[in-house]
Amino acid sequence: MNAIILGEFIGCVFLIIFGGGVVANTLLTKSKGINAGWFAISAGWGFAVMGGVFVAKSVGSDQADLNPAVTLAKYLLGGIYSLQEIFPIFISQFAGCFVGAILVWLTYFPHWKETKDPSLKLAVFSTGPAIRHSAANLMAEVIGTTILVFGIGAIFGKATNNGAISPALGPYLVGILVWAIGLSLGGATGYAINPARDLGPRIAHFLLPIAGKGKSDWKYSWVPVVGPVLGGVIGAYLWKTFL
What we know:
Blueprint: H1 2-27, H2 38-59, H3 68-77, H4 83-107, H5 109-114, H6 118-125, H7 134-156, H8 158-161, H9 170-185, H10 195-207, H11 223-242
Helix pairs in contact: 1-2, 1-4, 1-6, 2-9, 3-4, 3-11, 4-10, 7-9, 7-11, 10-11
């Protein structure tokens, strides 16, 4: 169990180093990647998931969830986790995302002062809606996470077990799946689709002495937590029903 917790923690650190890092590179003033655009951000997050999965597996987490919504879905499916196991895994995922966000802050340390718009700084750490509409924003996160969990089920379900897909391709395919979700559905909310990915770095934003950072938008923060949790439950049901 300790290896699983450590694997999830370090995997999530890498997830945010690459994911938060690509946002910082694209948005922060005087970064060499500034204005690279949404394609770069969505690709970076896809690669972040792929890299995080490889790291988590190498350290000891065979499932390499990196996402409490995915861990919850697998618990609901049965036979993967016990109730006693999932909460330490949740904590390690949130902690890993928190630490990853600190490392992104340190990497781009001079750029925070140069960047005048506080909303761009917050966007490096957490998601936000393009149009603020609580019901629609929640639905977008539910749909995105449902597709994520169902897609993971399709990759690692019958196709893998029947030999149609090699398990070694799993991390690459999950990364592509996240990339696709970002390209297709990410424009509405920034596609957290992962409570730890959003809340862990948001707490880091709140606590860190970021130059001119502004507020952490706690009024919205429940959406990228509740939406993915609901999406994980729905995705688990669909996974169990069809895959």
